[in-house]
Batch of 4 targets.
Target 1
Amino acid sequence: MTETNEHLQPDGQTGDERRLPPAVLVDSRASFNEMMAALRQEPALALDTESDSLYRYFYRVCLIQISLPDIDYLVDPLRVPDLEPLGALLADPAHEKVFHAAENDILMLKRDFGFSFANLFDTMVAARILGWRQVSLAALLEKHFGVTLDKRTQLTDWGQRPLSKAQLSYARLDSHYLLPLRDLLAVELKRRGRWREAQESLASLVEVTYVEKPFDPDGFWRIKGARDLRPAELAVLRELYLWRDSQARAANRPPFKIIGDDSLLRLSQRQPRHLNDLRLSERQVDHYGDSLLAVIRRAQDAPPPQPPARPRGGNGRPDPNVTAAYDRLRTWRANRAAERGVEADVVLTNDALMGIARAAPTTLEELAGLGILGPWKLEEYGAELLDVLAT
């Protein structure tokens, strides 16, 4: 295994990172096996991931940070592609896995490696249940450990190799403090009688499922200012939007790296005929100028697009009884959240409230049968919810 301090002295390390023992870069099968032997001996491990979504159309997990109390591992899945032993550990309930803002990490690890999970702790979820106002990892580390994260490094290209000194230094800090932060939060949750609530919320994290979102050819309607365009301009915007996605796929770059939404909107309005009129960067004109002009010319003969139909339920009109019940439940939730000093969705999400409003249960048994509330929330809020519905 490679200790990253060999590569991080001096300009790649922050003052916070220099105080820590060396991080270990896991970039071979031998170093991976050595790491796994250490992980299996520990009851808890902290994890984080980095991906290249800002630089690739087909983005992927590019680094997995794993921390134990006395060592930090930086696993390079681009160099060690077979991570099945790690997946088995993540699915083992005997080992607690600690994340911060776990959902996206879990979804990406499920998508890229087919991992499943058990026994999770999310420090952001716990902090929100406690009503802490600043719940970003950077804010929590600065407040409780005096550590400052340089978040600019997060925006760099994690798919490049070799990773820079600054990237390696930043990455290990993202997971290093999660285990002591977890212990701090657990003590506070238990002290304030919120441990059961936290356990119930955390248990649902393992159920999140990655769903591939296909490209939406009508996505141009969501560009700011699109609905202010004239029909002929909308036809150009649609063709430019479709063209941009095809270019992004071919180059494996995010669409905004090809050309931004603002530029698409301006081109749709102005509809230039010559390269000098495109008013784009020199690189964009060199790479895409002729193609853009051809798309604009073709789109000028295309029929204007029709706005997508809005989804409707039943007869197309919301049930007034459901709407009224939902509004009453939202008012109850706002009051309950204010009493606790937490964000409203910590009490119940909008989806949960709507599900309850539509079902209109009249007994605790019926409410429990919906499968919307766990045992703690049913016990804590069930009778109040039924009172609100009966109003």
Target 2
Amino acid sequence: MVNLSEDWSERYRPDRMATLVGNDGPRKRIENWLHSWSKGIPLRKGILLVGPPGIGKTTIALATAAEFGWNVVELNASEQRNAAVLRRAAMSGAVHSSLDSWSSSGQNTSRTLILLDEVDHLGGSFRKVSEKKIEQTFDSDSEAGLKGDSGGKAELLRILEQSHQPVIMTCNDKMRLFGRSDWRANETRIRKFADIIEFRRVTAMNLETIAKRVLNEEGVSIDGPALDMMIRNNSGDIRALIN
């Protein structure tokens, strides 16, 4: 097991917007969307962040939520994410928000961000599963509940439609999420409730900035040509560079 205290990519994960580097345009769109929640529930309650792994999509979501003082309920690809599990996460988000409102004398100044990482790893179609199956999954004594990611994509749409809390989804391959055969219709379903924001691999200049910041914090020096070679051989993957 990796000791996270020795894992530089975790140790130097930005926790505020000022320390984020690269993809300025997409990051500004996220910031504007977050600000829109201060005026009430926006038309699109979710955003789908699309781009290759290692460029900071999850980091951006966590850092911006932290800066706004929001709670975070997070599900990632290593967990089952069937319809029942996603619904439980959404319910948890509602509970967090209610507790915050109660603890601040009814002044609901915070939100709970529902963060669904790597939704392109959700299996199956957008076909709904029965409510009975979902209820059986909630019942710990029942063995007839949902397994794996059954109904996950359909529940994702339901959450986006009905949630009173912000939802951020990350995705490496949007075609894998939408499905090859009916991708246009499925993309339209998502766009009805969520903006899709495309990210690009960061530039060599951005990589150099990040590398120098990490090395400076560690008190480690590096020869200029060696750093140049590391950056030239990196495809814009921040996590790979730091590791």
Target 3
Amino acid sequence: MKLWGGRFSKSTAKLVDKFNASIYFDKKLYKQDIIGSIAYTKMLEKCNIITDEESFKIINGLKEILKEIEDGSVQFKIEYEDIHMNIEKLLIDKIGDVGKKLHTARSRNDQIAVDMRLYLKEEINNICNILKNLLKTLIYISEKNIDTIMPGYTHMQRAQPITLAYHLMAYFQMFKRDYLRLIDCINRMDYLPLGAGALAGTTYSTNREFLAKELGFKNICDNSLDAVSDRDFVIEFLSTASIIMMHLSRFCEEIIIWNSSEFNFIEMDDSFSTGSSIMPQKKNPDVPELLRGKTGRVYGNLISLFTVMKGLPLAYNKDTQEDKEGV
């Protein structure tokens, strides 16, 4: 019996189970789902919706499940569809019926919305750190080449003399804007959707401000319909990621050109190059070529989600499940 199957008289067809399930990819959100559930349990206890003893059992059970998942001893099951229901089933199996109380006043709709925001906040911070390293590297190379003269181009024709440092610092400005866009992206997604329920809140007296503080959100979503159906924050991230990839692709294009015999401005390091099976004189810039090529993949993810979202009525629709793989 499905956790949602109370009114159904037939079992779901196995083909539908397979087609409907998102556990293949949303299993990556296990940590965020458990962190969110632990905070949610504390809130239920604080609001006297569950007892101290029930809260203790649920939280300990969730912590044990987290350890088991990270140890590789958990097998997620398609019949439980997604990461939320898989973890809930694992919890009920571990601590009994008290585990069912975790779902009180909560829907998978607001649950996935908070999981995605927690995941993206963490990942964006990781990307920001990578960008900072790139910015430092550009400064380092520029400082060593303040007096390295090179031609500046317009229309791919030699125009005016500049320095290599000046050229590289143009890319510094691009990637600095990308960094700032990511920070803006976090600021706009830093609102807690948990507590919105399926679409219209709950009749239970919950405490969303407490939840926001526990989970590190600066504020709460003002409208429950919007909270569960909004994927603007995902689209904004994918848009920013696409701009980053565009800048990387432009940079890679120049590296590829500069590495050619016709330009001969630079030589790629052996450890970041490949050769030819029949032309031993060649050194191929495969890494920048692949980066340039993978830009299309990121653009595709953005356009895909734009297309998914463009015709969706309020509130949650199953189409929204398509937001995760691209991210």
Target 4
Amino acid sequence: VGLALQQGNVVNTMNPASYGQVDSLTMIFDASVTGQLTNFKEGATRQNAKTANFDYIVASFRAWRNIGISVGILPLSDVGYSYQTTSTVSQEYGKLTESYNGEGGLREAYIGFGWHVLKPLSIGFNAGYVWGDLDRSVQTPNSNFGSLMKSYSVSVNSYKFDVGMQWRQPLNKNNVVTIGATMGIGHKLNADPKLDIINVSKTDTTSHKISNGLELPWSMAVGLAWQHRDRLTIAADAEMQQWSKTSFPTYVNDAYTVSKDIMKDRLSLKLGAEWVPNANDVNHYFNRVRYRFGV
């Protein structure tokens, strides 16, 4: 969660309005790399996979009074898979094995501004450059139907723009409620998806291309946070991404076209809490630890 959180010592890219609360005496630098070991099992077959991913690198600092700036690189999507499926077509043709492979991803380099306009109100925006390559393929190697491969690829160079606001309302000297909201601008990515249908046995290739065939969805999100003293914070976020209204390229009936009924809207609901026994206790380390829970 983070849409309604204001912390001067954290780079909160979920809501750019939070940059206006950055501490005037601090420059924050944050980076993350993730490693993952996965075990796959299907029937009697087992396989281990190791992956390492660069997650993000961000920084934040105070530019002027009540104005904060953040810059960084964030992941927008990651693609990485390789597997096979086998199915029986008929007694005449026997079994059909298909291999699926995908790799690539999109990244966003952004600069964001946050302005603490009034005592309760902060606003901000992130403006980003999005780039990357996406490649995926489906192949039927050495089957009775011949060796056929469909190769999908696209290169993206576009922009991304998000706006946000936060309203912080003290209830009394011990309790504060904050409301946050963000909106992401949906638009075409100016990317041209390409499909190559390759008959490996005949060394024959048929190519298809769609002009401006990918887009980002409009997104709306709201968050609510309650903070009790400096010890307990409980927050909730809800976000809707309108993927059902975006175009996506599909190959149907020997035609490579875009369609708007491929994907469904995405709704995410999050609830989180943070508790610190005593952040100012210099003698006991575990009293300064921030314990977090979420679902």
